[in-house]
Design brief:
It is built from 17 helices and twelve strands. It has helices at about 10-20, 25-35, 40-45, 45-50, 55-65, 65-85, 95-100, 130-145, 160-170, 195-200, 220-230, 245-255, 270-280, 290-295, 315-325, 335-340, 345-355, and strands at about 85-90, 105-110, 120-125, 150-155, 175-180, 205, 235, 260, 285, 330-335, 360-365, 370. The chain has a nine-stranded mixed beta sheet with strand order 1-2-6-5-4-3-7-8-9, sandwiched between helices. A three-stranded antiparallel beta sheet has the order 10-12-11.
Length: about 375
């Protein structure tokens, strides 16, 4: 089999053609390529041999000779070249986490700069009609994960939680990929067109659907399996009792990937899905980014915080003393601050509280402190 069909014009053309054959999905397409050695060989097989192949039969075999299949493939080849879209084939440069999923598509289309083999891939999903609570949880989660080495955030570019996650990533310079339920020749919802363009510069857009595929509602549940399958963990931020986020979480669990969810009030309908995932042990409960880092055992993979001496105006002498001590390392224990500051314990506690209220420092578990 050709190792990288994306670099072989003829094989890529036939991979595309295979994806257009009526009744041939990813699983069947993979079986045919494995059986006959390449997509090109599949189309060279005599009709009689093809129809006698398990799962094919006469009707599907005749579909391989349909002229429209080749017309569509030629049109798509032209689109790919014109718009610098990469094709990811199962036999080539395909996201490795996804290859283990039996229902993975035969090929996908990608436009972007982010590598899809990142060290840590987190899917962040949720309702399209988020509350202020969900909005803040999502932004705080992304912000709390930004210190992780090799992070990629994946979502579906939908309104609500998806868009909030993508936007926060763009703002912080975190690579983020949107998985679409339509072709790369359009953006849905249209209001995310600017966001999508920004994501291509520091992330990307991914779809299993060729150009010309409209955002039909049946496509989005299919899209969710890619979000779940290419990620190490799926985080549900806020979700109703039913919806796409729960589909993604269920798929992730089925792929033996981690699932996490933020809890909400018991009478809040937009947290009902998260609460149910937690109640049934399908998802681990998290309340902050550090919980997710601990769940995934990523504690040792944080980037070292840049230690930089800063001058803070309008601080008291005691406050400046504490700020100077905190800037010597990533975080400092209260006992160390007490020892080096020379402040009485009550004065130290009052000074730390005042700095925290000003948003200059952050209290960490275990009586540690760091600058914000």
């Amino acid at each position: 089999m050709n190792t990288h069909p994306e670099n072989d014009h003829e094989e890529l053309y036939h991979q595309l053609a295979l994806s257009y054959v009526n009744g041939i999905g990813g699983k069947m397409g993979r079986m045919l390529i494995e059986k006959f050695g390449s997509a090109t060989n599949v189309f060279k097989v005599p009709l009689k041999e093809l129809k006698n192949t398990d799962g094919i039969g006469e009707i599907k075999a005749k579909a391989f000779k349909d002229s429209e299949v080749f017309a569509y493939a030629e049109k798509e080849m032209a689109f790919l070249m014109q718009h610098d879209v990469k094709v990811l084939c199962l036999a080539g440069t395909y996201p490795q986490r996804l290859t283990g999923c039996s229902d993975a598509p035969l090929l996908m289309f990608y436009k972007g700069t982010a590598g899809l083999e990142a060290k840590k891939i987190v899917a962040v999903v949720g309702t399209r009609k988020n509350t202020d609570y969900g909005h803040k949880l999502c932004e705080d989660l992304i912000e709390g994960l930004q210190s992780l080495e090799g992070l990629l955030v994946v979502s579906g570019l939908a309104l609500g939680i998806d868009s909030i996650a993508h936007k926060k990533c763009v703002q912080l310079g975190i690579p983020t990929v949107g998985v679409l339920g339509h072709g790369l020749d359009t953006i849905y919802p249209y209001s995310n067109k600017t966001l999508a363009a920004q994501m291509i510069e520091n992330g990307g857009l991914l779809s299993e659907f060729p150009s010309g595929t409209i955002p039909d509602r049946t496509n989005f549940p299919m899209r969710n399996r890619i979000v779940a399958g290419m990620s190490d963990v799926t985080v549900v931020v806020e979700s109703n009792a039913t919806g796409g986020a729960l589909i993604t979480a269920t798929l992730a669990a089925g792929y033996h990937r981690e699932v996490a969810a933020f809890p909400g009030r018991v009478n809040d309908t937009r947290s009902a899905g998260c609460n149910e995932l937690i109640r049934t042990n399908m998802a681990a409960m998290i309340t902050k980014a550090d919980d997710l880092v601990e769940l995934m055992n990523w504690d040792k993979d944080r980037k070292p915080r840049a230690v930089q001496k800063q001058l803070f105006l309008n601080l008291s002498a005691d406050e400046q003393k504490i700020m100077d001590l905190l800037q010597t390392k990533d975080n400092v224990h209260a006992d160390e601050l007490f020892h080096h500051s020379g402040l009485a314990s009550t004065m130290l506690a009052a000074t730390l509280l005042q700095l925290e209220m000003q948003g200059l420092i952050k209290a960490l578990p275990g009586k540690f402190y760091r600058t914000n």
